[in-house]
């Protein structure tokens, strides 16, 4: 019963995060920043979804709270890194990872962050080797989080695709 309920929640969460990451990624790619109101909307939707999820958890409240607290660690780490590095890692990126972690849990957030980081590393390396930019050029990170979330959805089966 718990696994079936968890799978339904994961699909709903995945859709919520994909939509909001898609909206925020487009702005981050174009302008290298994210509007505060979009991040607040994202946080509000995650909060409302979390309340609904918490109210339907039955006897799993403790597990849900622990998962949310542990899930916030990667995002908190990114926010601290952004503060220490004078925003070499943007606060919007840290807040997005924080919201993903609170909603999805520690391991899911870490996997999405790892996938996004590897993707950003490869693109940065490609741009440097092709002499399209220097080491100091900033690239938008939220599009990579968007792709990491898409990969996580495909990997965990949140996105149902028929047999190919």
TrEMBL record:
<dbReference type="Pfam" id="PF01478">
    <property type="entry name" value="Peptidase_A24"/>
</dbReference>
<feature type="transmembrane region" description="Helical">
    <location>
        <begin position="36"/>
        <end position="52"/>
    </location>
</feature>
<keyword id="KW-0472">Membrane</keyword>
<dbReference type="GO" id="GO:0016020">
    <property type="term" value="C:membrane"/>
</dbReference>
<feature type="domain" description="Prepilin type IV endopeptidase peptidase">
    <location>
        <begin position="16"/>
        <end position="123"/>
    </location>
</feature>
<protein>
    <submittedName>
        <fullName>Peptidase</fullName>
    </submittedName>
</protein>
<dbReference type="InterPro" id="IPR000045">
    <property type="entry name" value="Prepilin_IV_endopep_pep"/>
</dbReference>
<keyword id="KW-0812">Transmembrane</keyword>
<dbReference type="GO" id="GO:0004190">
    <property type="term" value="F:aspartic-type endopeptidase activity"/>
</dbReference>
<feature type="transmembrane region" description="Helical">
    <location>
        <begin position="64"/>
        <end position="82"/>
    </location>
</feature>
<keyword id="KW-1133">Transmembrane helix</keyword>
<feature type="transmembrane region" description="Helical">
    <location>
        <begin position="94"/>
        <end position="127"/>
    </location>
</feature>
<feature type="transmembrane region" description="Helical">
    <location>
        <begin position="139"/>
        <end position="158"/>
    </location>
</feature>
